[in-house]
Design a protein that fits this description.
Oligomer: single chain
Shape: elongated
Number of helices: 5
Structural class: alpha+beta
């Protein structure tokens, strides 16, 4: 059970509770610009390079006419961020004894980004320093 400390048995009274969700919300403000074709190609190639394993697929392997056609279907943008606001809810306000069950529940369910969320919840201590460290670790 995910909240085994708060609700130790299946018959525990949950009439004064509501679902809890863990999330990171980021709202950015800034100036948005269209990317020219050269910058877009570079961004796509950088993304492929960062995402593919060593020796993996490269954009150069794609037939030139297909690459040209697909690329024209993509409009790239660059956002120059002027400010941002981040809101974080990673079980830090919940009963601390439930944290282990929440992490294990996410790992067992393993849907979409559950493993990443479990990583964040297990290491987050409520400080921006721990959040930065945990987010950097996810990029690897």
């Amino acid at each position: 059970m995910w909240f085994s400390s708060s609700f130790p048995s299946p018959r525990s009274d949950r009439s004064r509770t509501a679902p809890t969700f863990n999330y990171i919300s980021l709202i950015m403000h800034g100036r948005l610009e269209f990317m020219d074709d050269v910058a877009l190609q570079r961004q796509i190639k950088d993304l492929v390079s960062a995402s593919e394993p060593k020796g993996g697929w490269r954009t150069e392997e794609l037939a030139a006419d297909l690459w040209e056609g697909w690329r024209k279907l993509i409009q790239g943008y660059r956002l120059e961020i002027a400010s941002f606001d981040m809101t974080v809810k990673l079980s830090h306000g919940d009963v601390p004894e439930d944290r282990h069950g929440i992490v294990e529940g996410l790992r067992a369910r393993n849907v979409l980004a559950d493993e990443n969320m479990a990583h964040l919840i297990s290491g987050y201590d409520g400080t921006s320093k721990s959040l930065q460290s945990l987010l950097r670790a996810l990029k690897r």
